[in-house]
TrEMBL record:
GO molecular function, one term: oxidoreductase activity, acting on the CH-OH group of donors, NAD or NADP as acceptor
Name of the protein described by the UniProt record: Malate dehydrogenase (Oxaloacetate-decarboxylating)
Cofactor(s) needed: Mg(2+); Mn(2+)
Species of the source: Asanoa ferruginea
Cofactor annotation remark: Divalent metal cations. Prefers magnesium or manganese.
Source domain of life: Bacteria
UniProt lineage: Bacteria, Bacillati, Actinomycetota, Actinomycetes, Micromonosporales
InterPro entries: ACT_dom, Aminoacid_DH-like_N_sf, Malate_Decarboxylase, Malic_N_dom, Malic_N_dom_sf, Malic_NAD-bd, Malic_NAD-bd_bact_type, Malic_OxRdtase
SUPFAM superfamilies found in the cross-reference section: Aminoacid dehydrogenase-like, N-terminal domain, NAD(P)-binding Rossmann-fold domains
Length: 475
């Protein structure tokens, strides 16, 4: 019955169970859960009497079906009464994850008169006279719109705006927790490029930055490019640039571990969508030796016809030897594999064909391109996007600090120089004396990360890498 997939906190359940009050009952429960392939993370006694003990058993499972299997295994035990099963992820989302909290007290008529009418009229007139004052006197100074059309939600596909809202809420919560940035979900009931651009342009006056999220390729490229031309605030597609920054940071330290230089390695990238394309562009900008890109048509090469513009660009800038085989063939002798595509594309035997001291970043979530347990048998460094595995490559390492830096600098755009600076800052937080095969990126909870990234991005903005106005106002 044990699952071959990896259990995770994302499928954590709490099961309320009544059992006989004898010395072996609790042990039978935990043994049963372990044999079913789940991981017990907590066991709490809720109630008891002379004959019965009621416990809450919390465990991580691999998916909803696996959770059902675990519950059925417990129900099959003699003397076990399963009374309730709670999905901890759904409990966390009840009522949403964010709220608006006023920064000023409204305790009496005097305070109300200054925060709202009549006093607020003077502030409105000041901004009408000098629109730049909106950055100083309103939420624009510290607020980001998290914009999605729901067309590419996580790895789940086109779920629409309502179903994308939990992700955008989570993103807003991460902005606040890690960067002190006030962010708000803006989910749009349209997937028309022109309409999305017009809507975002229309709401932009209220925000200091736009974070595009979960918008399908290739539409996301055009939307970002057009908004950058239209707006005087940064537009940042996190699926592209946040991922690319984190991958470059992780690869910088992974190469330090194995003693290789970026300009000497051959990289195979599975997935040439928004994330993969941005990763490859940033690696090329940093001087990578060569890249082979793989997607639905196979390996991208000059012999393919009628390719979309982003793929045509990749054909012209990667795969310098013109390789035309399959993914497994591309992997032979490669130094680095980066997967931002689909689960279970590769086996441990495929990884074994890579160059000595190979590096594997299998980032498909929740199930990576190759089982990390198998990859570690052959690769020197393995990273995933999972929080329950070493070397989690997570965009939260990048976007809170990137926006913090851009907002502080009043940057009018996001640039490649900012991306490179952010990646270097993330890599350097680990410290040369701390890097090893299981530690190539800092923890997402390391308080130094967002501070370092913000400082690096702010410096890049103020050095002329992007039009910016220094923030001289008082906090």
């Amino acid at each position: 019955m044990a699952t071959t997939r990896l259990p995770s906190a994302g499928f954590s359940i709490t099961i309320r169970i009544g059992v006989m009050a004898d010395a072996s009952s609790i042990g039978r429960l935990t043994t049963c859960v372990g044999e079913a392939g789940a991981i017990v993370t907590a066991l709490d006694v809720v109630d008891s009497d002379p004959t019965t003990v009621v416990v809450d058993l919390t465990c991580d499972t691999a998916d909803a079906n696996h959770a059902d299997q675990v519950v059925k295994a417990l129900e099959a035990l003699e003397g076990v009464d399963v009374r309730k099963v709670s999905d901890r992820t759904f409990l966390l989302h009840l009522g949403g994850k964010i709220e608006v909290t006023p920064k000023v007290a409204l305790r009496n008529r005097d305070e109300l008169s200054r925060a709202y009418t009549p006093g607020v009229a003077r502030v409105c007139l000041a901004i009408a006279e000098n629109p730049a004052d909106a950055r100083r006197l309103t939420i624009k100074r510290n607020t980001v719109a998290v914009v999605s059309d729901g067309s590419a939600v996580l790895g789940l596909g086109n779920l629409g705006p309502a179903a994308s809202l939990p992700v955008m809420e989570g993103k807003a919560a991460l902005f606040k927790r890690f960067g002190g940035v006030d962010a708000w979900p803006v989910v749009l009931d349209t997937q028309d490029t022109d309409e999305i651009v017009r809507i975002v342009q229309a709401i932009a006056p209220a925000y200091g930055g736009i974070n595009l999220e979960d918008i399908a390729a290739p539409r996301c490229f055009e939307i970002e490019e057009r908004l950058r031309d239209l707006l005087d605030i940064p537009v940042f597609h996190d699926d592209q640039h946040g991922t690319a920054i984190c991958v470059l940071a992780a690869l910088t330290n992974a190469l330090r571990v194995v003693g290789k230089r970026l300009e000497d390695v051959r990289v195979v990238v599975s997935g040439a969508g928004a994330a993969g394309t941005a990763i490859m562009k940033l690696l090329l900008r940093q001087g990578v030796g060569d890249i082979i890109a793989y997607d639905r048509p196979g390996v991208l090469h000059a012999g393919l016809k009628d390719l979309p513009a982003p793929w045509q660009w990749l054909v012209e800038h990667t795969n310098r030897d013109g390789y035309q085989g399959d993914l497994q063939g591309a992997l032979r002798g490669a130094d680095v594999f980066i997967g931002v595509s689909a689960p279970n594309l590769l086996t441990g035997d495929d990884i074994a064909t890579m160059a000595p001291d190979s590096i594997v970043f299998a980032l498909a979530n929740p199930d990576p391109e190759v089982d990390p347990r198998e990859a570690r048998k052959h690769a020197a460094v393995v990273a995933t996007g999972r929080s329950d595995q070493p070397n989690q490559i997570n965009n939260v390492l990048a976007f809170p600090g990137v926006f913090r830096g851009m907002l502080d600098a009043h940057a009018e755009g996001f640039t490649e120089e900012m991306a490179l600076a952010a990646a270097q800052a993330i890599a350097d937080v680990v410290g040369q004396d701390k890097i090893n095969p299981t530690v190539i990126v800092p923890s997402v909870f390391d308080p130094r990360v967002a501070v370092a990234v913000a400082a690096a991005v702010r410096a890049a903005a103020q050095s002329g890498a992007a039009p910016a106005v220094a923030d001289t106002s008082t906090p």
